[in-house]
Design brief:
With 117 residues, the chain is α+β, with helices and mostly antiparallel strands. It is 25% helix and 26% strand. The protein has one domain (16-116).
């Protein structure tokens, strides 16, 4: 079964639609992740950094930071959503950092690491 949904993003939201072909196919979990990402991105008034269309990342927004972490929301090309804090003092090349993560989470963060270095 197929369902067509027209998504209209407001001017205050990041224009994600330009990153996609005219038609996107996703399952219900991916739709929830995509919607969650859009809702969270609307809250990012002054992002520190935005990465768009890099390797397996559709978009990543560094929305905040403190003395310990940079905080990111990330949507990957499989429509997985992550909200993560990346330690400022962490060595992103250290493989132990990724041990407790799923393979998908690990790949997303490694892709982000490539941009940050």
């Amino acid at each position: 079964m197929s369902l067509t949904i027209n998504l209209i993003l407001g001017s205050s939201e990041y224009d994600l639609l330009n990153l996609f072909d005219e038609n996107i196919e996703m399952n219900s979990s991916q739709l929830v992740n995509f919607s969650t990402y859009i809702e969270q991105s609307k809250k990012c008034k002054n992002p520190k950094n935005v990465i768009t269309n890099h390797e397996n990342i559709i978009q990543a927004i560094n929305y905040d930071s403190d003395e310990n972490n940079n905080y990111w929301i990330i949507l990957d090309k499989k429509f997985n959503f992550m909200d993560v804090g990346i330690p400022l003092s962490g060595d992103l090349s250290n493989e132990k950092l990724y041990e407790d993560l799923s393979s998908e989470e690990s790949e997303i963060l490694k892709s982000l690491k490539d941009v940050l270095n």
